[in-house]
Design brief:
The protein has two domains: 1-35; 37-189, Alpha-Beta Complex (Phosphatidylethanolamine-binding Protein), CATH 3.90.280. It is 15% helix and 28% strand. The protein has helices at residues 13-27, 30-35, 167-174; strands spanning 7-8, 11-12, 41-42, 45-46, 71-73, 82-89, 97-105, 109-110, 125-126, 145-155, 178-189.
Length: 194
């Protein structure tokens, strides 16, 4: 009928269009984009013991001393309060195998041979790897060459987590707090059968 607004789902068409516009505006508010950027800044992660995509020396694996390698990375953005790290092997036969989980790292580096303690003197905390142990567990592939990713996250806060924290728990706790991230990966092929 002329002169009457058409209805969509019981609501006049003009009112329906206005409601949709308001809902769309509410989903992408400026506050949300300021608090949680669409993509975190990138930081470069390095080791003095191996180059990116190169072989990890045996001393950092189950065939050697099985100690953590030295790592360093670019400082995070100005509001960085701490760093977190997850090391994993996506090539493991049963799915991704986690080798190391750490958070509340104060500096943009970790020295070689980090102690396997839940809390270190400098405040760094470590959680459980896929072996169910606290701290670092080196590469130990059953067969073939595997990739080992050291992922570092610059966070806007410190995290209150227990030593039973695993990689999934850490990822959940970091959600909405990552300011920058970067990764280094090396490869390893086991030479002996265990």
């Amino acid at each position: 009928m002329p002169g009457r607004a058409r209805r969509v789902g019981g609501v006049p068409r003009k009112a329906s269009a206005l409601l949709l516009a308001l809902a769309a505006a509410a989903c992408g508010t400026e506050a949300t984009s300021r608090e949680e950027p669409m993509s975190a800044a990138k930081i470069q992660v390095k080791s003095t013991s191996f180059d990116a995509r190169a072989s990890i020396p045996a001393q950092y694996t189950c065939e050697g001393r099985d100690v953590s390698p030295p790592l360093a990375w670019d400082a995070g953005p100005p509001k960085t309060a701490s760093y977190a790290l997850i090391m994993d092997d996506p090539d493991a036969p049963g799915g991704t195998w986690v080798h190391w989980v750490a958070w509340n790292i104060a500096r943009a580096e970790l020295a070689e041979s980090v102690a396997r303690d839940a809390k270190l003197a400098d405040g760094t905390c470590q959680g459980k790897n896929s072996w169910g142990k606290v701290g670092y567990g080196g590469p130990c592939p059953p067969s073939g060459e595997h990739r080992y990713f050291f992922r570092v996250y610059a966070l806007d806060r410190k995290l209150e987590l227990s030593s039973s924290t695993d990689a999934d728990d850490l990822r959940a706790a970091m959600r909405g707090h990552v300011l920058a991230e970067g990764e280094l990966y090396g490869v390893y092929t086991k030479t002996k059968k265990r």
